[in-house]
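Hey, sorry to bother you again with one of my protein questions. I've been staring at a protein lately and its backbone has me curious. I owe you a coffee for this, so here goes:
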Amino acid sequence: MIIRSSRRLNRTELNFWVMPNAGFATRPILDQYIQEFEKRRPDVKVNLTIHPWSLSWNRLMDVIKGRFTGIPPDVVQIGTTWVATLAYLGALDKIPQENVLPEEDKNSAYIWDPGAQSETGKELFCVPWFIDIRVLYYRKDLFQQLNIPVESLFDWKGFSEACAEILKHLRRGGPVSNIIAPVAIPGQKLGVLMHDLAPWIWEAGGDFCSDDLMRGHFDDAATMRGCQFYFDLIQQGFMPLPANDLPQGNFFTGHYAMQFSGSWPVETYLNPNSQYCSREVAENFAVALLPAGPQGRYTFLGGSNLAVSSVCQKTDLAWEFIHFLTEPSRQLEHAKAIGSLPARIASMEKLFDKHPEAKKVFWDSIGHARRLPRLIPLGSVEQIISKMCGRLLALIRAGDYNHKRLQDQMQMVNDDINSVLSLHRYGSVPTEKVP
């Protein structure tokens, strides 16, 4: 066995790949934990590499196919939609029976399971790191100024009416200081993800695949209705796309009245004492459940895991590092630092000490949450849907979007999904509501 070591200090090197979970702050946030780990293990040097989300999947595929020309990862951050595909391809090491999850730390200690993707559902490949549970942020002061009842956010109809009322005041130059639109598109980036569409598809009574996971459901009328509602929000100007003439901001920076988000930046944007906060937002924000659709209320539950790459040649050390990062208090500190939610139930309790009303909404949202289907080719399906969304956004920008073109795009995507699913008729578990 060959283990790469640092010549200068003769230290074993551990290569850690992550995505920019806190933008440019990701490196300094993780560096403090890396330094702490290296102090415990002076014989180890952890090399941190941050890959953009847009490139991470392809780079992992290059590693799997032996085409990556750099140093491959030992420990990797894995989005929940990637676990089934990567585990099936043999890209992930299985969690050892000992010394990773404490004896008392079974699946029930987490808000979602850490990637049980095998046919038996018992093999684990990842340890949960942080989660994404979508809620609706809104400005209480703005709703009061415009006499919009908060109760209107209960369902699709009321939510659309609230968006229209806010937009009407914006066009008249009403009392909406710094607000440029009713709703911020998640992430303020030019892109819509499978995760973003999921709640609206489910609330319309649709789904991504048939119950037996054999066929795509993007040609289903209910699935089309959910996508139509979402893209209409963009087309009508309720949730505008980022553009050069718009400030680079979101709900948390004070530029929008609402936003669908799984973030919880309680130490920064929502903290009146933070240098990063907009005081108007920090003092007047509230959260609500996602508006209910014609077939019920659902939200998306996902997140990121930590895993060991199958090409890793020092797996014991890699799992030791993951155990270190996911220790309860450290996981809570990390979640606060990146403005996210920890995956541990005990840590979640502590996170909302000063915000009981928000805590109730997040906990209630977990009761309405669903995961994406555990398809072996889910990573590929996600890419297909992402490209469709990019084409639809281009149509909206060009003023060429309509429901017929949306249906055409969805039918084309459904054909592509069926082609992918035809290659994998086993080893998948249907989408489910969180127990």
In short: The first strand starts at residue 5 and ends at 6. The radius of gyration is 22 Å. The chain is about 40% helix and 15% strand. The chain has a mean pLDDT of 87.
